[in-house]
């Protein structure tokens, strides 16, 4: 996913020329010059010079991306082989010829690890779009036989659909909500085509997306992938949940399911609550909202996202966006504390994934879920 740079053999710092002023401005020509995929990877420098964790946070907060005009898209690669446990999913880039290390230079990183479900490929996916000074970040956690195809489909269309909506500039929240609903329609259309490699009747995906635009956060989600905001305090950082997991047993969700004609119950020996038809052991979905999962809709499952807008403040430092493979054994505050201590987003993401993996292995469940983590520092407010 990117080079590791040791202190013993540290290459020339190519970001130094951009770092002379207290405010660091990046434009497209600088990005192409510093992070072109045509350059030898060993010459790419993705970290500022050795600094304290506090200074590292300030380094990323100084990044001014207002001069960027091009759009850069990073997505999870298509699955071409069966991965081993904890193996990294590849990254697919657009045609911009920008190296993935560009992401870390602006305070963003993603890691996507295969779990221990031997019969399934890595069903997680992600999408990161840098659109001028705007960030669009998405995590998708597929489930069912074709969940990996559906999460990949969504990584290719959901955020891009929001960007192409005429309402994007004037009403981002509405355009994002519409992108979820239109992505559901596109999923159905694609699954019904003769050339489709998936069905979305018994397979689906979560989605959690956070857009950073003009000093605001636009948050939307379906399912149990989660986004958390870290706020700087006088002592440490405060984890602020941006999403609520869509669990079938939560009062509002359960009420809607039961009014639609579904039933929420636990199977014997399970800790998860699932959605069923009354008196049936079907369909058994462990979330109350998702994309795909058409067989669960008559029982009250919906694809409409929960959305909200938040105005950013100066002490809003970074975002932690993950699939439930991370949140199963790690609390919001613990994740924020770990990222704050790590400083660099790549290092933080890898440590968070390793901690989650260890806890899965020690849980006695003989399994581990796929894990996706996006760490993103909030850019300079304008």
In short:
27% of the residues lie in helices and 27% in strands. With 382 residues, it is of the alpha+beta class.
Question: How are the elements arranged and paired?
Answer:
Blueprint: E1 24-27, H1 28-35, H2 53-61, E2 63-67, E3 71-76, E4 91-93, H3 101-105, E5 108-113, E6 124-131, E7 134-143, H4 147-164, H5 172-192, E8 204-205, E9 207-213, E10 216-222, E11 226-232, E12 237-241, H6 251-260, E13 263-266, E14 273-276, E15 283-285, E16 291-292, E17 306-311, E18 316-322, H7 324-327, H8 332-342, H9 345-362, E19 371-377
Parallel strand pairs: 1-2
Antiparallel strand pairs: 3-4, 3-6, 5-19, 6-7, 7-8, 7-9, 8-16, 9-10, 10-17, 11-12, 11-18, 13-14, 14-15, 18-19
Mean pLDDT: 86
* Portion in beta strands: 25-35%
The profile of the biggest β sheet is: 9 strands, antiparallel
Number of spatially distinct domains: 2
If classified by CATH, what would the architecture of the largest domain be? 4-Layer Sandwich
The CATH class of the largest domain turns out to be Alpha Beta
Shape: globular
What is the CA-CA span between the terminal residues? 31 Å
Protein name: PPM-type phosphatase domain-containing protein
Biased composition (Polar residues): 42-51
Region (Disordered): 1-56
GO molecular function: metal ion binding; protein serine/threonine phosphatase activity
